[in-house]
Write a structure and sequence with these properties.
Largest sheet: 4 strands, antiparallel
Strand order of the largest sheet: 1-2-4-3
Shape: extended
Strand content: 5-15%
Radius of gyration: 26 Å
Helix content: 40-55%
Structural class: alpha+beta
Number of helices: 7
CATH topology of the largest domain: Mlu1-box Binding Protein, DNA-binding Domain
Number of domains: 2
Number of strands: 6
CATH class of the largest domain: Alpha Beta
């Protein structure tokens, strides 16, 4: 029963909040195939297993950010109360609380996704450190190359689309720009 849920699906459900990688309770309930309410009740019955560094509840500002970032469609998606979020350690603790075979298998896949993300982040930090070392080692002659590599490492900036109607512009014989909107003559 290895790979109950594809790793790519889990990776898309891991969010960054309060400087930590976390998963929303509703996403975990979906993966475990249990009702979110049932998951929250199991957690509340075993609340001593979930200190604040394992689990916390979103505040209004964080919920609004999730809506603005299109992580969730609307705040009503939470069902009236703000959801719990679980860190990697909290997710590991959930398998002991839920006590099902599916929870164990899903948790294994989730743990692997967290490890993979950590390795990717460490790889980027290592690459940036090596680049800095090389830059110090070599003269300014390679500064352009290093700047270009750094630029490639940055996330691409999406071009902003203009809003509204853009009429084509003609330059007349006077060299002045005028909008090329032709008026039809009325036949009457």
């Amino acid at each position: 029963m290895n790979g109950v849920v594809p790793m790519e699906i889990i990776e898309r459900k891991i969010l960054a909040l309060r400087g930590q990688k976390v998963m929303l309770s509703m996403y975990l309930a979906e993966l475990y195939e249990v009702d979110t309410r049932a998951l929250n009740q199991a957690v509340k019955r075993n609340i001593t297993r979930f200190p604040e560094d394992f689990m916390f509840q979103l505040n209004d500002i964080e919920a609004a950010q999730l809506v603005s970032q299109n992580v969730i469609p609307h705040k009503k998606y939470f069902g009236g109360s703000l959801p719990y979020v679980f860190t990697e350690q909290g997710v590991a603790m959930l398998s002991s609380v839920l006590n099902s075979e599916r929870a164990v298998h899903v948790n294994i896949t989730i743990m692997r996704a967290f490890v993979k993300l950590r390795e990717i982040l460490a790889g980027n930090k290592d690459l940036a450190r090596k680049l800095n070392e090389m830059e110090k080692k070599y003269d300014a002659q390679f500064k352009i190359v290093f700047d270009a590599i750094r630029k490639l490492m940055e996330a691409p900036e999406k071009p902003r689309r203009r809003i509204g109607f853009n009429a084509p512009v003609d330059e007349g014989p006077t060299g002045l720009k005028k909008h090329s909107i032709k008026m039809r003559k009325r036949h009457g």
